[in-house]
Amino acid sequence: MMDNSDIIREFITLYVAQTPVDEEALRTAIRNNNLNEIASKAHHIKPTMEYIGAFALKDRIITIESLAKEQADINLIKDEFAILEKQLQDLYQELQHYLNSLR
């Protein structure tokens, strides 16, 4: 049976492993200037930010999704994504630090 720290450790480990994969899929859609795919990938990532309590990141992802759905200039989306990338890197580091503290 797992205790709370084991469950938390497993959740964070899965999150830190899967979210970069989703981030890369969004990055590829942006690189390809594919607005429909950008909206789809952003929509897919959105709830995962809520799971971890990263509400500011969720808001930025909502912005990216909305811009894509509105057929906005791709450069606006790229600017938002550049900020998101930095925020995600910070989040991954914080989660890794927390994960290390559970050991």
From TrEMBL:
PTM annotation (Phosphohistidine): residues: 43
PROSITE patterns per the UniProt record, alphabetical: HPT
Stretches assigned to the HPt domain: 4-98
Name of the protein described by the UniProt record: HPt domain-containing protein
Pfam families: Hpt
Species of the source: Sphingobacterium spiritivorum ATCC 33861
Signal peptide (from-to): none
GO biological process, one term: phosphorelay signal transduction system
